Amino acid sequence: MALRVRVAPSKVVLQNLITCLILFYFVYYVSLSMCCLILQVYELDVLAPFDFKTNPSWLNTNYKVLLFSTEVTYFVCGLLFALVVEEWVWDYAISVTILHVAITSTVMLEFPLTSHWWAALGAGLISMICGGQTLAYCLFKDNFIYPDLGNF
Asked: Which residue ranges does UniProt annotate as crossing the membrane (predicted)?
């Protein structure tokens, strides 16, 4: 006789969201560390994932580290989210990004209004959704839920 445990759908969604958020910041700090090593930046603030005030210049190595680590994080997390949530990568990607903006605003004590930060975030979000949804489709195409548009 098997033990059956029924979990409420909202609890599963919250559990997946927390898992994705932890995964996001774990990957962020790993990619930040790797970019620091590659670009030989030996001094960077612990709050670097929330820094939107760094001067956007290709001559500024700290800016390049922040930009590259952001883009790598978003792309890699899109692929990892596909393994965690299967077909709903786009939903969790947007939710994690909104939470990241809220956490960034809280940590930095102001709302980010710099266009370069929003452009990097938008590009990262698009790569996260496209990469993650593509992987999810390839891995779980037999389980995808397709809407019935026959009566539409």
From this structure: 12-42, 62-85, 92-111, 117-140
- Degrees (nearest 5) of the Cα angle 25, 26, 30? 115
Residues with Cβ within 8 Å of residue 135, at least 6 apart in sequence: 78, 79, 82, 89
Question: Per the structure block, which two tokens stand in for 44?
Answer: 């960077």
> CA nearest 45: which of 69, 24, 22?
69
CA atoms within 13 A on the CB side of 60: 10
User: What tens digit of pLDDT does each residue of 53-102 get?
Assistant: 888 888 888 899 999 999 999 999 999 999 999 888 999 999 999 999 99
The runs of H, that is alpha helices, within the chain are 9-38, 61-85, 89-108, 115-140
43's tokens: 């001094």
